[in-house]
Amino acid sequence: MLILLLTCLAGGLGAVARSLVDTALRARSEALFATLPWVATLAINVTGSFVLGVATGTLTGAPLGILGTGFCGGFTTFSTASWQVARLVGRRSRRIAAAYLVLTVVGCLAAAWLGLTLAG
Asked: Where exactly are the transmembrane stretches of this chain (predicted)?
């Protein structure tokens, strides 16, 4: 029961961290995010994937579940990325949607691999 509660708490903290990072990134470059609103989501997902890679390379058992499922699950936002891709397609920005989708998948996998490699 304690592991479940800690995982939930970590998920909440991850969601708060995501919101803070998103707000900070948008505040630094309003012009960039007006043109490319999905950049913050991409940065958050790649960063979260890197943290998950490091966690996977250094932790086991409950700590890995709490940090990986809890914090990283709350921090990353693949549902938002999917919605943003669909929205770009709906606006007939298919090339940008495809590039964003590929960049998200490849970037997140590369970041997770890098984190795992550095931790291992």
From this structure: 33-55, 97-116
Of the candidates 35, 42, 15, 40, the residue with the CA atom closest to the CA atom of residue 25? 40
Query: What six digits make up the tokens of 40?
Result: 């913050």
Number of domains, the chain: 1
Binding residue positions: 73, 76
The end-to-end CA distance of the chain, in Å, is: 30
Residue 30's domain comprises 2-119
| Cβ atoms within 10 Å of 50's Cβ, excluding its own | 21
Query: Does position 111 have pLDDT exceeding 90, yes or no?
Result: yes
What span, in angstroms and rounded, lies between the C-alpha atoms of 25 and 23?
6
Known binding-site residues for Na(+) equal 73, 76
pTM summary value: 0.93
- Percent of the chain with pLDDT strictly greater than 70: 100
Q: What region does 59 belong to: left with phi over 0, alpha with psi -120 to 50, or beta?
A: beta
